[in-house]
Structure formats: C-alpha cells, structure tokens
Amino acid sequence: MKTIAVFDTGKTNIKLSVTDEAGRLVETLSTPNAVHDGPPYRHHDLAAIEAWLLDGLATLASRHDIAAIVCAAHGSGGVLVDDEGPVMPMVDYEQAVPAEIDREYHEIAGSFRERGSAVMLGAAHLARQMLWLELGWPEAFTRARHFLATPQYWAWQLSGVAASEVTSLAAQSHLWCSADARPARLIEARNWQRLIPPLRPAWSTLANIKPEISRQTGLKPTTAILCGIHDSSANFYQYQAAGLNDVTVVSTGTWIVAISDRAGPDFDIERAGLCCNADVEAKPLPGMLTMGGREFAVVAGGDNRPTTEENLVRLIETRTMALPSFGSDDGLFPGTSRKGHLTGPLADQRDLRHALALLYAALLTDRCLQLVQTSTVILDGSFARDPLYGALIATLNPDRRVFVNADQYGTATGAALLASHEARQTSAPLALKAATPFLHPNLDEYREHWLRAAQTGGQDDGL
After folding, report:
1. What are residue 288's DSSP bridge partners?
2. Which of 83, 106, 134, 298 could link 141 by a cystine bridge, Cβ 3.0 to 4.6 Å?
3. Above 80 in pLDDT, residue 349?
4. pLDDT value at 459 more than 70
5. Whole-angstrom Cα distance, residue 410 to residue 405?
C-alpha cells in the first residue's frame, strides 16, 4: 500500500505521521518542539528537528512504501535562509521584540484588511520577524536569499526547491491580504520581494526528494516533496475534500481556531479575534483566533478529573465563572490581558477546575461562532475528546448542526489528501458524529452574565 508522510510542526509538539492515500492514519511519531532562550533570541533548534525528522523518515521508510511527503506547520514560524541553510535562527513567536521594533511595526503594518488579523503580541507575525531581522542583523538579512514559512522551509530542505504558498502566507503572517487574495503592500514597501519565492499550490510537487536524503533514509528516489500547507488550513481542507460547504470548523489545541467558508465579516472593520485565512485555492476564509488551549490549562490548574454533567450543573446554577483573559494577549476581549480570574461561590473548589475550564473553553468557542455564521459547525482537536464540550456547543447553538470529529489527526489527514488533489474524483471519506445537546434551563442566562462580565473586565459579573 502506498502511503503519504506528513511532517507537522506545531508550537508545542512535532509529529511525523504516515497515512494511507485516503488520509487515514497508519502510524505516527512525535517529539516536543523545544526552544532555546538564546542567543540571539528565543529560537527553535532547527538542527535537532532536522536530525529527528531524518531519523523518523528512516524508521517509517523501513515499514511503509512512502510515495510523497507533505509538510504542515502553525502560521507564525519562518526561516531566513541563503543557498546553504538558515542565516539566522528560527524565531519563537512568543519571543518579545525590542520596543523600537514593535513601535515601528505598528506604524508600517497597514490596515486590518491588509493584515487579516490583529497585531498580536511577541513576534507572532512573519512580517514583524522580517522587520526585526532586517534592522537587527542587516548583514545576514542582506545576504539571505529567501524567507520561508515553516512548511516551505522543510519542503525546501527535503527537495532543494524554494517556494511560497498561500495558506501559509495567509495565516496571520501580515504578508498576504487574504480578503483581496493578493500579497500585502508591505512587501513592496519594504522591498522584500526578493525574499518571497514564487507562489506554488499546496498540492504541487516541488521536486523529488534530494538524492542524499533518499540514501540516508532509505526513501525511494522518486518520493515526491509537496509544497506544503498551514496546519489549520490542512485540517479545513479535509472537509473541503469531503465535499462539505457552508461550514465552520473549530480546531482546538494551543489555539481555538474557527475557520469558515462563508463570507460575512467586513474586513475593513477590525474586531477582537477576527482573522482572514485562505484555502488552498486562495479563497478568503473568515475566522476567529484565540489562545484557548493555553487558557484552559491555566483555569484547570492541573485538575485532570473528568468533567461530569453534575459538575457543570453546579457551576451553572451557582454562576461560578472563569472570566478572561488568562494570557498575555487580550484574546476575544480587548483590555483583559492578564486579568483572568475565577469568580462565584465554587471558585475555590479544586475538584471543579477541569469542569470550569471546559465550560470556559465552550464559551470562548461560542463567542467565536457568533462572528462566523454558517449552518454547520464541526468540532475537532483536543477539546472535542470530551463529549461535554460538543454537548455545550450544541446547546448554545440550537439553530445549527453541530458535529464532532473524533479523529485527532485532522492536520495529517488534510495534508495527506493534498497528494490526491488533482486526481480525486469522489469525495474523501469523513466520519462525523452529531453532538448531543447538554440541556440546562439556565445555560443561556449563564452565557449572558458571562459575556457581560467578560466585556466589562469583570466589573459587572452579575453575582
């Protein structure tokens, strides 16, 4: 059986998976994505990742007939390279940039329509990373040949061909105006065109694997290296390949990422959390973005007890709440950065913290869904493992069809399906389960109080 290898670089973990041609998982390997504090800044260890990748490919090649490799990654990583390799370490996007760089970036970043997302904290945008590298290390920046988003960096390492790709550029890089399906004007204004390679489709074969890597890993010399894709866009692609439309996909992990295929938001107006990604055909995909996974972990506080309906009922009936935001970013509620707190009669009960975190995550998700309206909602990722998460979303959205995808490897599935993009004649298989609502008469009222308190910074929590 021919298989597809998917190399998925996440913020927290890295996975190397093998799927069949329909995207069904066969085997996966994983390792933490460690960062070094410096110098010259917090950065990812590309050499260690490459060594792990090649070792993993050798292991998997000994067990599977791998026909192609697809690279996927989160949307806030990029590497400045010359013809030989990186000329600067890969910036960790949670690294703070110098104040003078931050000030200048806010001045040049352009309108919300140009950016397609808020100007977030740290080094979250590829364009801000480029500005910092240009001003902080001008010699290295001058001799560089390309600035490659993470999926295309690894595709370049495996194939020797440099390319850009639209879903990667559209993922909050501020280098692509998704609403108008064109490069951001910032590229020309900064004279960065020379560093942005030509666009190639995510499914296109850049080249066969480098001969030396074929020999080292045992992969066939004809192993195709595809251009690659942004991870959430890969996950969304699996639903497109299955023939779905008028759908919002909510992917959960470090981030809650809601992506919709239905137009609606006005991208001339900036709203908290609103973003605009792109699909593999460069069609704009309205969405919402908030670091819900990180906030979940803070609220849960290490409590891993399974959530029960009884615990949810206790929290709802006593109006015990987690109010935003628990991270360094405002998330969906401007002015709430680092102001997250617990309130209500049961706030101090440690055995309810996991349930409170799940309820908080469901309310964040619901807030995202109110700004991207479609008839169908699909939940996947880490939160979807708990059936009560889907149950809460279904209850809060009674006019929508809410489904759960229990497959935890949506990025690998979607990325692997790219290999059959041009040849596919039937819809890709997809297994969804309708969410069963969690019915409680006070849940809507609880949501209203929570939303009012969240929008006022907890000054009006209704308790």
Report:
1. 258, 274
2. 134
3. yes
4. no
5. 9
Amino acid at 138: P
Give kind and range of the element (H or E) at residue 372: none
Q: How far apart are CA 272 and CA 367, in angstroms?
A: 11
Beta bridge partner(s), residue 246: none
- The fraction of the chain above a pLDDT of 90, given in percent, is 92
**Which residue is associated with the tokens 């619901």?**
366
Domains and CATH numbers, the chain: 2-227 (3.30.420.40), 233-455 (3.30.420.40)
List helix spans (H) across 82-224: 99-108, 112-115, 126-136, 138-143, 150-159, 166-169, 185-189, 211-217
State how far the Cα of 168 lies from the Cα of 234, in Å rounded to an integer. Answer: 10
The answer to whether 30 and 14 have CB atoms below 8 angstroms apart is yes
Is-cis flag, bond preceding 39, omega within 30?
yes
Beta strands in 209-273 (DSSP E): 224-226, 229-230, 247-252, 256-260
Amino acid at 185: R
Measured distance CA(112)–CA(302) in Å, rounded: 37
State how far the Cα of 220 lies from the Cα of 305, in Å rounded to an integer.
Answer: 47
The residue whose two tokens read 């935001």 is 325
Taking the C-alpha atoms of residue 345 and residue 187, their distance in angstroms, rounded to an integer, is 53
Pairing of strands 229-230, 65-73: parallel
| pTM of the predicted structure, to 2 decimals | 0.93
Whether the predicted pLDDT of 461 surpasses 90: no
The whole-number pLDDT of residue 462 equals 46
| Residue listed under structure tokens 């996440």 | 10
Q: CB neighbours of 167 closer than 8 A, spacing ≥ 6?
A: 202, 229, 230, 233, 234, 277, 278, 279, 280
Closest CA to 157 of 13, 31, 7: 7
Interhelix angle 443-455/387-396, rounded to 10 degrees, is 90
**How are beta strands 376-381 and 247-252 bridged, if at all?**
parallel
Sequence length of the chain is 463
Short-list 34, 104, 19, CA closest to 67: 19
